[in-house]
Amino acid sequence: MNDQNAADFPTYLNEVADRVTVALDRLIPPAEGPEAQLMRAMRYASLATGKRLRPFFVIAFGELFGAPEKSLLRTAAALECIHTYSLIHDDLPCMDDDDLRRGQPTVHKRFDEATAVLAGDALLTLAFEILSHPDTHQDGSVRCKLIEKLSRASGAQGMVGGQMIDMLAGDVRQDLNSITRMQRLKTGALIAYAGEAACILGGASDQQRSAVTGFTHDLGLAYQIADDLLDVEGNEAELGKGVGKDADAGKANFVTLLGKDGARQRVEMLAEQAKEHLAIFRNRAHLLLQSVDFVLQRRH
Amino acid sequence: MNDQNAADFPTYLNEVADRVTVALDRLIPPAEGPEAQLMRAMRYASLATGKRLRPFFVIAFGELFGAPEKSLLRTAAALECIHTYSLIHDDLPCMDDDDLRRGQPTVHKRFDEATAVLAGDALLTLAFEILSHPDTHQDGSVRCKLIEKLSRASGAQGMVGGQMIDMLAGDVRQDLNSITRMQRLKTGALIAYAGEAACILGGASDQQRSAVTGFTHDLGLAYQIADDLLDVEGNEAELGKGVGKDADAGKANFVTLLGKDGARQRVEMLAEQAKEHLAIFRNRAHLLLQSVDFVLQRRH
The complex's ipTM? Predict the structure, then answer.
């Protein structure tokens, strides 16, 4: 980690978050007509303050490879639509039944359940509309590649598959392998997509691509373990969302399987490993290096 | 209508339905691993007997324009994924709260609500994965055009927007214009997409395209009015789904606004108009001509 640049990262992350919010504001249809409540709900969920971590990885890696800014921003916005839809549906009473998200009432609390289902569906659909448009990239086969990868990362064999396993987790015995696979699907796949999309748009070499994949894989897992630590140690006021859910639901997680110390060590190990993958980019990757500590620090 | 071919249509429709079911069976991931319940629910909803009307229009118009069979079948399957996801979510307790669909328990009744939400999300996502794959068409910009049109037809400014209006309909005054717009979004947009996709894949001329658009517009509306008539006249045993919902929910529909006779006349008028659009295709469109009476007959 480069101490000279230690102050850069939060500034850069906020700047990226602001750009993504502006892009989403433009891309989500205006709240007009008798269906206006749908767009209001989409906006309420999408424009709320978030870290925009997945967009950050799209843009930071994409800039490293010299990918066009507009392509990166639209792809980052599409990815954030998918992430936001998954939070809306995950928070529903029949799923995790959460009342708070990003420091505000969840969509089904602020509006109602039907609106939450539909706003999620509409954001999911919007993600693919954004990517399919020629503004995202002049080459249709590049746009299709972005769509194919995003649909795989977020569908039955990616994020949604992981959510299904998580919903059923109370009923089956879980070991470290099964928890790791579940998290790789549920949260890892979208983080990995952020890197993949940047590689596609920036024409990354095979060597660069495998460095990016290694980084997002390790960081994604570290992020989840840190999240489980937070589930034990955190408190509601600090996070703006409910905590201690896994224990209540009788679900195993990294902390119940590894213990607190074991989980902390695993996070450290993965964080170091993630940084090592970036070595080939030298100090051009300093913001990405800083992101590792920043992302994990606030979570353990 | 060509009497010589009167027997052809049901056979052709069944044949198309079978081909689409086989395609969906191949395209939906196998039910494996701890997430198997997700795939089982996707299959349960998608492979159930249905008319496959939207796929029929993709394939019948596509064949008229000489579009490649494989492209048509994959596009038809993607469209059916969108239609099926919308039924699963629409049937949820927080939406229309239906227990029966296609003659069997709805997904949330057969499985549970969380599985229904996720199976819908996964089918929605799968539709775009199918279209983005090079097997759908060798030209990426054609695939992207299919994706862009489908996302618009099914998103906040299409089907999902129409569903939002329908959910809120109990609370606002509705006239014929607002009901017509709602239905154009909720059910018309996907039927229109079937025709649009065929035009894209078959390289239809502007004149052909506008005939197709006119046809799907009129037929889509006729279909909905016929459905409203069924809501009043039908019975549960015959249809395998609950009826009389609109009246119970205090919602206006075409029958409450036009009366039974007025609604029947409107259906007839739209059916004739739909057929007139097909005149430019002469008797090459005989199956499409027959589809009009077939589709509307069983519904009024």
Answer: 0.94
